[in-house]
Amino acid sequence: MAAPLSGFSTTDLLAELKKRMETPAKKNMILIGPPGSGKGTQAPIIKEKYNLCHLATGDLLRAAVAAGTEMGKKAKAVMEAGGLVSDDIVVGIIKENIHAPECNNGFILDGFPRTVGQAKTLDEMLVSEKVGTIGAVIEFKIPDELLVERICGRLVHAASGRSYHEKFAPPKVPMKDDVTGEPLMKRKDDNEATLRSRLTAFHEQTKPVVDYYAAKGLYSPIDANQKFDTVKAAIAAVLSK
């Protein structure tokens, strides 16, 4: 959040206003959505359009552990002891990344916060680091039944990561990769029982976080059960406010 202008002289006030007008506000945002909602498809588009960094907390955690950063070492010790990585460590890992040059214009947070406590810890860190505040929280809304159909029909070529779908994007030859002809597989977790359990947990976990940001006037739900370009336009409309 910018500093108040009440303490400036007239000359300094004009200079500060000019500086603020010339320096675009950072676009710090959070994307919320269950697996299969299209969040992972739209995030790179937002990143490129606004020149932001994409902070997917799972990836950040693995990278910090591999790089042996201060927070990575703490996380590794906790995980090796069989514990859960604390909110302070996760926020610390985000803190290690938000000052990177690619985050100069802002960031997209993906996969965090998952609780109100995490949201408050994140807010405090952003203020202390003077990197702006969260400006938008976008939730990708889509019926659970459609997610079950999307995810349970996924097929993957393990070696390349190429993905298909039994209904929406089938391979030319059933259960064979189009390029190599090698067998396709279904991921172990891509089954209805596992997915419904994950969706139930997601909804229970997400509602308090959504309510927290809605109370701040930052929350915007979008209908993710639409064509790609329609969802893209809905996101652009939210971010133009």
From TrEMBL:
InterPro entries: Adenyl_kin_sub (IPR006259), Adenylat/UMP-CMP_kin (IPR000850), Adenylat_kinase_CS (IPR033690), Adenylate_kinase_lid-dom (IPR007862), P-loop_NTPase (IPR027417). Signal peptide: none annotated. Keywords: Kinase, Nucleotide-binding, Transferase. GO terms for molecular function: AMP kinase activity; ATP binding. Residues 154-189 form the Adenylate kinase active site lid domain. Transmembrane segments: none annotated. It holds the Pfam family ADK. PANTHER family: NUCLEOTIDE KINASE. Belongs to the adenylate kinase family. This is Adenylate kinase. It comes from Chrysochromulina tobinii.
